[in-house]
């Protein structure tokens, strides 16, 4: 059985990762190698493939400048000055182009008739909004504007309003209760959505806020998943809890980590888990076990269960959220890879179906590109409005 | 992955079946449902339109045959269109899997978005080429962006028992690619799998980088790795990668999930590149060939019998099965045989999975899931049998109250469960005796109905 566990190989979960600037590749335009706030870029020169084997035992000792420099993405906040909205807009530019073009083409000089409404519905479906969400929006149009001559601007503005109205209730940031000492965040999701990267970004943000953060490398299955998180712990200066050996029990690891974290008085403990398809009941059961076991240390834990969703995911996201919610009582969502050509329109359908808070969205590869979710900006950005 | 879509289409055609003749309005209604189902299955909009139009043209122009119902005819037309769209049918050249028909070392370039499963797929391909094609494979990771990505591929190479290119920190992807090809030429490798970093299709700098790698290595196969859960964006991704690096094949990963996988249809339509392989699990050997006809049949709820038979053939021990059959024929079926049968069923995976491959079961799949079929019952029954003495297994009649108590305690079950097993075994033995009495011919004539108690006397004809 144990041998089986060892030989069993987990599906790889290549995740979205910030690129360290020291690598000699033509960097993306938004990542200039130097930034005004970098006092010492030295630590950033550590190659990512050589992880520091010894984790920092007491995270508080790391001075903030080092932590800043250690995380390359933090070095240049300048391009982010335009705010997350402009970044999101830039990221969505291509995807919205398609949506906007077809909406524009549809309505510039047209009467809003059945055919037009049907085309509008299809357009929304093509943006991954889902059939149900698209229908609801189109029905809103039918009630108020059927048979009228409508302009492009009108359609877009109303569409944005409709979408924002659906999204507004779910736009809630994740609040940490540091009195929990630590606030335990369990990060779950299917393979390859960006769990480890999201933990790294969150950890960096918490460290910058002066909180003591810890990473638990709960993905004991996938090859080199532990090393991946280790590199991030070294870069952000978070306390790192690795498994004793590959394939070790994630629940046991989480138990030990939480016990230690309590003794050391950490503020927040981010627990990584192996990616798992939601229809594999054995793996989902394993996740429940992690929760059961950490409750022996702290009955209220985990205080947050963050489900990480990939924005490129289509309608299957609904099923993912449904099953993860049932099995591990997800408290909020993180939507990653919104800077690609995928629209993430599925968020609208999820908001309608589940009403789960969307805590953060990933619109880029830097730590600060993990942003709070803003309903109105998202909706207007999706339609190419300012 | 296509179960949900099949149940949708089944709903449509059920309604059609209930009507006598098929009017044009019926076809239109069915096609509207087909369209919504395909859209919900993440098939891209333009692809859906094409498919629906194709089906309408063919369905309307066709004469209604007397021998088949109109619904069956529509199903056939939709099925053919799906098969064609997935790369099968008349245009199918029958080629499957990776094309290695080039001078060694054959470079294979893996590209795709972040988190689509490139690295795992690289490991799976390496294992497959080593074991099935007896090739000497070199794995090289060009992913210098994600922490520990190169280490991940190295670990996978060890598991697949192939060589991975030694990691040299600080090299650029192009340098690594050149080094990999150099090593492969000098050490006479047959195949080099180049695993690249995940990249967004709109990230021009990184897309340029992968184009450079392609130029430098001239790969014989450029495989786009795509997650089966991908939504409408599959079209954009496929288009962008195809324009920039020229995709020769598509690998769909995570089809073991419950995503409807419409992305397969979309990407095939956009790139024209064939879907070559399917990633169907977390283990390294979970890589399957893509069969358009099978997948299309599954979409239509016709079941995937071929896959079921193949799965059974791969997992069930042939000798054991023959021995068992011989004993069953002689009426010597014992609890020991039953236990070994349980073990073999367990090896084939979950009951839901097996049932899902049967024709028509797609429809009741939801009910099956709701019923929450307890597969652990197989394990418990095996445990009960293990707790019996060899003598008890051969002659279950021995087992009375106190033996039952002992067996229940030994297997961690209850006396009721022991009773249930014994009763079940009794029924099975009775059925087998009746089967023997009927003989092979009788069985053919009477069918399964003749076996069932109470129904045995009602023989057809």
Automatic annotation (TrEMBL), chain A:
Membrane topology annotation: Peripheral membrane protein
SRP54-type proteins GTP-binding domain ranges (all copies): 182-384
Quaternary structure and partners: Part of the signal recognition particle protein translocation system, which is composed of SRP and FtsY. SRP is a ribonucleoprotein composed of Ffh and a 4.5S RNA molecule.
Protein name as it appears in the record: Signal recognition particle receptor FtsY
Underlying gene: ftsY
Region (Disordered), start-end ranges: 1-82
Keyword Membrane annotated: yes
Primary location recorded for the protein, binned into one broad class: membrane
Keyword tags: Cell membrane, Cytoplasm, GTP-binding, Hydrolase, Membrane, Nucleotide-binding, Receptor
Phylogenetic lineage: Bacteria, Pseudomonadati, Pseudomonadota, Alphaproteobacteria, Acetobacterales
Enzyme Commission identifier(s): 3.6.5.4
SMART domains from the UniProt entry: AAA (SM00382), SRP54 (SM00962), SRP54_N (SM00963)
Annotated function: Involved in targeting and insertion of nascent membrane proteins into the cytoplasmic membrane. Acts as a receptor for the complex formed by the signal recognition particle (SRP) and the ribosome-nascent chain (RNC). Interaction with SRP-RNC leads to the transfer of the RNC complex to the Sec translocase for insertion into the membrane, the hydrolysis of GTP by both Ffh and FtsY, and the dissociation of the SRP-FtsY complex into the individual components.
Pfam families documented for this protein: SRP54 (PF00448), SRP54_N (PF02881)
Species, as recorded: Neoroseomonas marina
GO CC terms in record: cytoplasm; plasma membrane
Composition bias, Low complexity: 67-80
Single GO MF descriptor: GTP binding
Enzyme class per UniProt: hydrolase
Record GO biological process: SRP-dependent cotranslational protein targeting to membrane
Compositionally biased intervals (Basic and acidic residues): 10-19
Positions contributing to GTP binding: 189-196, 272-276, 336-339
Domain (AAA+ ATPase) ranges: 181-386
UniProtKB/TrEMBL annotation, chain B:
EC number per UniProt: 3.6.5.4
Catalytic activity: GTP + H2O = GDP + phosphate + H(+)
Membrane topology: Peripheral membrane protein
Alphabetical list of Pfam families matching this protein: SRP54, SRP54_N, SRP_SPB
One biological process term in Gene Ontology: SRP-dependent cotranslational protein targeting to membrane
Residues of the SRP54-type proteins GTP-binding domain: 274-287
Written domain comment of the UniProt record: Composed of three domains: the N-terminal N domain, which is responsible for interactions with the ribosome, the central G domain, which binds GTP, and the C-terminal M domain, which binds the RNA and the signal sequence of the RNC.
Protein name, per record: Signal recognition particle protein
Gene: ffh
């Amino acid at each position: 059985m144990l041998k089986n566990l060892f030989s069993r190989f987990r599906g790889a979960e290549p995740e979205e990762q910030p690129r360290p600037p020291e690598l000699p590749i033509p960097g993306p335009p938004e990542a200039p190698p130097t930034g005004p706030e970098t006092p010492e870029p030295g630590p950033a020169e550590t190659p990512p493939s050589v992880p520091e084997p010894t984790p920092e035992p007491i995270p508080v000792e790391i001075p903030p400048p080092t932590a800043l420099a250690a995380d390359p993405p933090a070095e240049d906040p300048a391009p982010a000055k335009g705010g997350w909205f402009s970044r999101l807009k830039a990221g969505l530019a291509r995807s919205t182009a398609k949506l906007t073009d077809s909406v524009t083409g549809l309505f510039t000089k047209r009467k809003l008739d059945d055919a037009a409404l049907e085309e509008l519905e299809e357009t929304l479906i093509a943006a991954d909004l889902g059939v149900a969400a698209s229908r609801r929006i189109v029905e809103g149009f039918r009630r108020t504007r059927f048979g009228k001559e409508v302009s492009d601007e009108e359609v877009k503005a109303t569409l944005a309003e409709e979408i924002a109205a659906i999204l507004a209730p779910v736009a809630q940031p994740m609040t940490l209760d540091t009195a929990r000492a630590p606030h335990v965040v369990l990060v779950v999701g299917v393979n390859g959505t960006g769990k480890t990267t999201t933990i790294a970004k969150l950890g960096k943000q918490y460290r910058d806020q002066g909180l003591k953060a810890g990473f638990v490398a709960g993905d004991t299955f996938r090859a080199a998943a532990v090393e991946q998180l280790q590199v991030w712990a070294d870069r952000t200066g978070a306390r790192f809890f690795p498994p004793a050996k590959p394939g070790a029990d994630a629940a046991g690891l989480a138990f030990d980590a939480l016990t230690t974290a309590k003794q050391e008085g950490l503020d927040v403990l981010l627990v990584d888990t192996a990616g798992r398809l939601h229809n594999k009941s054995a793996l989902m059961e394993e996740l429940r076990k992690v929760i059961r076991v950490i409750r022996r240390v702290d009955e209220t834990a985990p205080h947050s269960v963050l489900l990480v969703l990939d924005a490129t995911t289509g309608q299957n996201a609904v099923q993912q959220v449904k099953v993860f919610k049932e099995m591990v009582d997800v408290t909020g969502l993180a939507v990653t890879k919104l800077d690609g050509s995928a629209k993430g329109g599925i968020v609208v359908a999820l908001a309608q179906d589940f009403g789960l808070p969307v805590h953060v969205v990933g619109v880029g590869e830097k730590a600060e590109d993990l942003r709070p979710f803003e309903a109105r900006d998202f909706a207007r950005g999706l339609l190419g409005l300012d | 992955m296509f179960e949900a879509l099949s149940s949708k289409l089944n709903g449509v055609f059920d309604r059609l079946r209930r009507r006598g003749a098929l009017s044009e309005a019926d076809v239109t209604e069915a096609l509207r449902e087909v369209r919504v189902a395909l859209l919900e299955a993440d098939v891209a909009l333009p692809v859906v339109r094409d498919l629906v139009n194709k089906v309408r043209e063919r369905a309307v122009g066709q004469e209604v045959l007397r021998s088949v119902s109109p619904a069956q005819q529509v199903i056939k037309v939709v099925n053919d269109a799906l098969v064609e769209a997935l790369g099968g049918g008349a245009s199918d050249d029958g080629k499957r899997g990776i094309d290695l028909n080039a001078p060694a070392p054959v470079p294979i370039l893996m590209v795709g978005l972040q988190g689509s499963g490139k690295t795992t797929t690289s490991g799976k391909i390496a294992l497959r080429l080593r074991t099935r094609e007896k090739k000497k494979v070199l794995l090289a990771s060009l992913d210098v962006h994600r922490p520990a990505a190169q280490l991940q591929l190295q670990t996978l190479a060890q598991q697949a028992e192939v060589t991975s290119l030694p990691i040299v920190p600080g090299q650029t992807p192009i340098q690594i690619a050149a080094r990999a090809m150099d090593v492969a030429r000098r050490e006479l490798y047959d195949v080099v799998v180049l695993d690249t970093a995940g990249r967004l299709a709109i990230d021009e700098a990184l897309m340029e980088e992968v184009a450079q790698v392609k130029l430098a290595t001239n790969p014989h196969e450029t495989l786009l790795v795509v997650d089966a859960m991908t939504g409408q964006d599959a079209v954009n991704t496929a288009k962008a990668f195809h324009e920039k690096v020229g995709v020769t094949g598509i690998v769909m990963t995570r089809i073991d999930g419950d995503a409807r996988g419409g992305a397969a249809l979309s990407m095939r339509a956009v790139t024209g590149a064939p879907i070559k392989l399917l990633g169907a699990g977390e283990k390294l050997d979970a890589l399957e060939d893509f069969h358009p006809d099978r997948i299309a049949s599954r979409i239509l709820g016709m079941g995937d019998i071929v896959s079921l038979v193949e799965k059974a053939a791969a997992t069930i021990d042939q000798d054991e099965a023959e021995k068992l059959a011989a004993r069953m024929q002689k009426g010597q079926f014992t609890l020991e045989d039953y236990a070994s049968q349980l073990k073999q069923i367990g090896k084939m995976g979950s009951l839901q999975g097996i049932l899902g491959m049967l024709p028509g079961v797609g429809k009741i799949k939801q009910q099956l899931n709701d019923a929450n079929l307890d597969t652990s019952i197989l394990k418990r029954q095996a445990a009960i049998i293990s707790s019996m003495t060899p003598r008890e297994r051969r002659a279950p009649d021995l087992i009375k109250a106190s033996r039952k108590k002992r067996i229940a305690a030994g297997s961690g079950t209850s006396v009721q469960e022991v009773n249930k097993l014994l009763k079940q075994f009794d029924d099975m033995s009775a059925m087998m005796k009746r089967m023997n009495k009927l003989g092979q011919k009788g069985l053919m004539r009477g069918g399964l109905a003749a076996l069932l108690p109470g129904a045995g006397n009602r023989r057809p004809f």
